[in-house]
Amino acid sequence: MQLDPAGNVYGTTNIGGTGQDGTAFQLVPSGSGWTLNILYDFQGSVQEGGVIIGPGGNLYGGTADGSPNPVVYELSPSNGSWIYNTLYTFSYRYCPCGVAANLVMDSTGNLYGTTAGDSLRIYGSVFKLTPSNGGWTYTDLHDFTGGSDGAYPFSSVVVDANGKLYGTTSEGGSGPCNNGCGTVWEITP
After folding, report:
1. Does residue 27 have a pLDDT over 80?
2. Which strands sit side by side in the sheet containing 2-3, from one edge to the other?
């Protein structure tokens, strides 16, 4: 979940809404409690990673699954409602393999995230979306092999001041676990 400067909390649900496909919501402090506002009712997708707050109060997130495909999306406030915009559509379908954790935005507006695994990158990947001429350009930064580099990154990416990326995987690497006990990884630009 994310907290804005006014103390409002933003997040997503995995189920709920009219089609039971999840919602994006806002919790507003109200007296001694909270007021729930449903910002968006997702149709045909599974929310996993939640949302982050970007410039102008826009919300950014990704779906782990989708019909027809998982996506990275933006929700923008507009006259008391929220406008949904797909930023990138992944090319694989019907598996819990899209964005599995919160995205992260760097100081120049690039979005970074991980996929948990998919038909193209069986063990998951790290990606970057760069704003470009009114759209977004996708860059695949690393495809995990399931070996010493790890597999299935279900964590968010951390970006340091020098642009290095860090994260973890849930399998691969070494250790006494069946498929390795996971790794901590670094990508240097």
Report:
1. yes
2. 2-3, 9-12, 23-30, 33-41
